[in-house]
């Protein structure tokens, strides 16, 4: 997403359309992917594997929350269902009648669309799949440079970088674990990583800074990553204009958000304010 600062220079803000709590679209659907791309962002696809080995877009271990799967299927593990069974469910209707007919997509379906638009990118968030099978699909569609692979386990990121070196890798770290986990990753020299994502959860009491994780930690993390040629991404589970402006003022230019349209509007306000001095 390109915006201009007060000097008319272009600034790039990268953003991920987080799926599992997405407030604007039925998550992990082709409709959600297209929505994020058209807004100038990067959609995320949570990936699981069916009993017959098809990698699909699905966050949860079962279809109960996001599909209209019949009662007999609602608590079945995705890993125990065939792809044909998964395709019988509607993945849009529980979100809104507007999205009736949306199916749980296969990763191959999403990659085939991605391959038609080399300027677009896609996050793949590992849930439960065969990484070698995923790597083969990425190579088949020739989209390695358009993929950002995400997981909390640093070892999985290392594996993917070995399998498909052109794929960018991102380790995500929950805020309650960030002190130890970030230090561990730092001590490896951020081995095989391109991005580190840190989660931002609201503090119980807002005393001039919205989040539980202190701004000083974020500033230090940003410094370390920048020195090593990596990027810091933050996932603020909630934000308003003031908190987002503070993050931007710190120099953060990569975000994951649950409200893409609201985020884009906020980003434009920020740079408009900077232009108008």
Automatic annotation (TrEMBL):
The lineage of its organism: Bacteria, Bacillati, Bacillota, Bacilli, Bacillales. InterPro entries: GP_PDE_dom, PLC-like_Pdiesterase_TIM-brl. PANTHER family: GLYCEROPHOSPHODIESTER PHOSPHODIESTERASE, GLYCEROPHOSPHORYL DIESTER PHOSPHODIESTERASE. Residues 13-267 form the GP-PDE domain. Transmembrane segments: none annotated. It comes from Paenibacillus baimaensis. This is Glycerophosphodiester phosphodiesterase family protein. SUPFAM superfamilies: PLC-like phosphodiesterases. It comes from the Bacteria.
